[in-house]
Amino acid sequence: MNGIPTKDEMRQALDNRNGRNLQDKFARATVAICGLGGLGSNIAVSLARAGVGKLILIDFDEVDITNLHRQQYKASQIGCFKTQALADNLKEISPYLAITPYTQRIDENNFQELLQEADIICEAFDVAEAKALLVNGVLEKMPEKYLIAASGMAGIDSANNIHTRRVTNRFYLCGDEVSDVADNIGLFSSRVMLCAAHQAHMVLRILGGNFEV
Fold first, then answer.
1. Which of 53, 98, 105, 108 would be 27's cystine partner, CB 3.0–4.6 Å?
2. pTM (2 decimals)?
3. C-alpha angle 120/123/129, rounded to 5°?
């Protein structure tokens, strides 16, 4: 095969691997990713590879050299907005993926408008205050949405401590729930990616109708 496969060819490859019924559910879904750093950029790549139909990408920041050790960006993209850089990278992976980028800071005044189309929302912020704002806002104002948040992926502790916990019917939490980058224990791509994989996999399970962790 030469060049980029057609949309039908790419879909058929996924159907052959995962089954048409499951891929139909993925293809119809819209997932919002709030924060496009080590968690969010890796979540986005996993969902794009799985054939999720639409991603809403939200971040106000630019790619920095300090991001490259754990985030899905290239050295040539330093200085670019993360929304645009990640959208470009995702299109290389999944050229027919629908992407809605919002290059702005999410806050209590705009989160409902930005997230209204999403079936599932992934919280992927670095800052505790931003995490709390989004989680509390969605749980209070958008209780019909599925929310998957993260807490604890810093350091070089065992990978087996990363887990997914179902907090309520529509709220899930991924991570070790203990470690904190503020303790100066480092952030390693392997462990951050594990937490992102837990979040992405829970998205796929929910879309497939599997709600237990």
1. 53
2. 0.97
3. 145
